[in-house]
Amino acid sequence: MKIGDRVKFLNDTGGGIITRFLEPDKVLVKIEEGFEVPTMLNQLIPDSDEKQDLYHEKKNAPKSNSLGEMALIRNPGDNSMIEMKPVKKNSGKVYLAFTHEGNPFNTITSFINDTNYNIYYVVGIRKMEQQLFKYSGSLEPNTKVILGPYKILHPDEPTIFSVQYIGYKKGYYNPIEPVNYYLEINTRKLVDCEYEDKNDFFDEPASVFEINPDNSIAYIDHLKNDNMRRIIIQKEDKDDNKNNDKYRTKSDIVEVDLHIHEIVEDHAGLTDGEILDLQLKRFETVLDSAMHKKIKKIVFIHGVGQGRLKYEIARILDKKYPDLKYQDASFREYGYGATMVLL
Predict the structure, then answer these.
(1) What are the structural domains of the chain?
(2) Is the dihedral of CA 59, 65, 70, 75 positive or negative?
């Protein structure tokens, strides 16, 4: 082997061009990202692929990123200082996608990595100025993964997804900036399949949204109230003060009634499972809001019934809010159908 030969690493991915001999059996190999890597000759094999000129560059052209920053590292071969390529912006494309399984309210969420980097990702939903964790994992380059089902309960409310990811390569690579991105989707259009189109990632039409690292937040098709077709109309008080008076007792304990007729105006036709989902949705929404407002005590009135709602509330508190304490509310005031949460 001689200077200028293109080689591959025997026990690692990638390769480069021999630029200099450090010792009779040790050379510097310049890889695609611009680093010169000291390597033993017995750890290299000839690369029969078409040669690429990675070595000859304009010596007077400084390397910099969009901010004009450069970095120097010490060459392990001769202790001299050499330039290191700075962190650059992610130029690949990542997507969040949705497909349906018959029922338009039942979607399957997928994460697509259309870059040459491995990715660590976290996907959540923005609620009450906080993040509700949904999915996380790692994904290899140019692949996609099914994150899981996502059931739409409130089609006339926007859905904001939070997507964070870090790209990396195995072995030596030039780092890219981490991505922190918010995607707001018109949920009604998602249900009505208005976003669906042919694409390169699925055999059938799908709703595919690009996670654009050049923008910190994207708002897609803001809701227009005059065009909304409401299926379930939630009760909302126009005056926050009236709402507080409605749910606050003299002892300064906030009360929330989770009976279905207090959540939706018309629940005819809803299954028991759908009713339970709406009640638990109201429970978590109110609880998150109470925590944000630093309320000390809140009573959720769920009734006695078969005990399913009470059980699910306790399960959510144990799993998602392990730091919160809860107990049965006053039997004298609420009977046996209420749970008090201490914030």
Answers:
(1) 6-84 (no CATH), 93-226 (2.60.40.1600), 232-342 (3.30.1370.110)
(2) negative
